[in-house]
Design brief:
Layout: E1 5-11, E2 16-19, H1 25-31, E3 36-42, H2 46-56, H3 60-67, E4 74-77, E5 81-91, E6 98-108, E7 111-116, H4 124-129, H5 135-170, H6 179-207, H7 217-290, H8 308-329
Parallel strand pairs: 3-7
Antiparallel strand pairs: 1-2, 1-3, 4-5, 5-6, 6-7
Helix pairs in contact: 2-3, 5-6, 5-7, 6-7, 7-8
């Protein structure tokens, strides 16, 4: 058996699993009436999937989808099996957005084939302990694990939103970085995109295929439960998106208020400087005229100008006082 293939067979009566020693048993097990088969691949190539695809009669287009990456959740129905893509999410190491982890599933009446890629790994031992009694219920168990992961991520984002809200409201000097809030919004967009498509997948499993051979009526109730969980997650995402929008409005409002205060303070400073300029500008003009070299006003070199310096100082005081009085009358002071 290839290293990237894990094959399990369930005994229907005993509700137990055992690991298949090789893939040659698949055809015989499918013809028997006992239990069902779970084949799980990790990072397979098309050559790895071809032998199983021939035995289970899996559609070639669906096999091609298994080796393609970054696909959104979808569901396609074939003659005797259903192909669906689910997304798991995990936080990126450097990116503010979540990373998509794709799980491809082939669901038949007596088999389930799952294909995952990269770092995404299904905890097979934990899933087998849940004791699913059919291939459809096993798919429910796997999808349930992924739903719990999404719910955990959404709850963590709610905690991040509350923390950012507290930081913004307590911020006095505008040091909060809005990039954190933008990063949370981007993560919500990632989760929302996955949840919207997965809701459609499980809606089809519940409404359209619940009366068929692949999905029993009993299993359809479990898929309806998954739909309800996704609806709950979707509502939480929408509420958090509204909180993010309100939080950004609060941030921009506080930022605008701080800019208004700074602008007001600058305006007051400029007003003071203008007042000083208006008072001293006529004094500067008079001082320039009185200090010209052809006059002897400042030195008193001639008898006619003996008191000129004292009278000129009095004139400057009078002009300055008149300027101040005029500014007060104009309500600039």
């Amino acid at each position: 058996m290839k290293q990237n293939l894990f094959a399990f067979f369930s005994y229907a009566d005993e509700n137990k699993y055992h690991l298949l020693p090789n893939c040659e048993e698949i055809s015989a097990l499918l013809e028997s009436e006992d239990g069902f088969l779970w084949l799980h691949f990790h990072d397979p190539s098309i050559e790895d999937l071809d032998p199983v695809a021939k035995v289970l009669k899996l559609h070639p287009l669906a096999i091609e989808d298994c080796v393609n990456e970054d696909q959104l959740p979808k569901l396609e129905s074939f003659n005797d099996h259903i192909f669906l893509i689910l997304n798991n999410l995990k936080p990126g190491k450097e990116s503010a957005a979540f990373l998509f982890q794709e799980l491809d599933c082939f669901l038949g009446k007596k088999f389930l084939v799952t294909v995952c890629k990269g770092e995404f790994a299904i905890h097979t031992a934990h899933i087998l302990k849940r004791g699913a009694t059919s291939s459809a219920l096993l798919l429910y168990v796997i999808a349930q694990e992924m739903m719990e992961n999404k719910l955990s991520l959404v709850e963590d984002l709610q905690d991040d939103i509350d923390e950012e809200e507290e930081l913004i409201l307590r911020d006095q000097n505008g040091s909060v970085d809005i990039a954190e809030v933008v990063g949370i919004r981007r993560k919500l967009v990632n989760i929302r995109k996955s949840v919207v498509y997965e809701r459609e997948v499980f809606t089809k499993l519940y409404h359209r295929y619940s009366k068929g051979d692949v999905v029993s009526e009993e299993a359809s109730y479990y898929f309806r439960d998954l739909y309800d969980q996704l609806s709950k997650i979707y509502e939480m995402i929408e509420m958090e998106r509204e909180e993010i929008a309100n939080l950004m409005e609060i941030f921009l409002s506080l930022k605008s208020n701080r800019l208004s205060i700074v602008s007001y303070n600058i305006s007051k400073t400029m007003k003071r400087l203008t007042l000083i300029t208006m008072i001293f500008m006529p004094l500067t003009l008079l001082s320039g005229i009185g200090g010209m070299s052809e006059w002897t006003m400042m030195t008193g070199g001639e008898a006619n100008w003996a008191l000129s310096y004292s009278l000129f100082m009095v004139l400057l005081v009078v002009v300055a006082s008149l300027c101040v009085l005029l500014l007060k009358l104009l309500k600039w002071w």
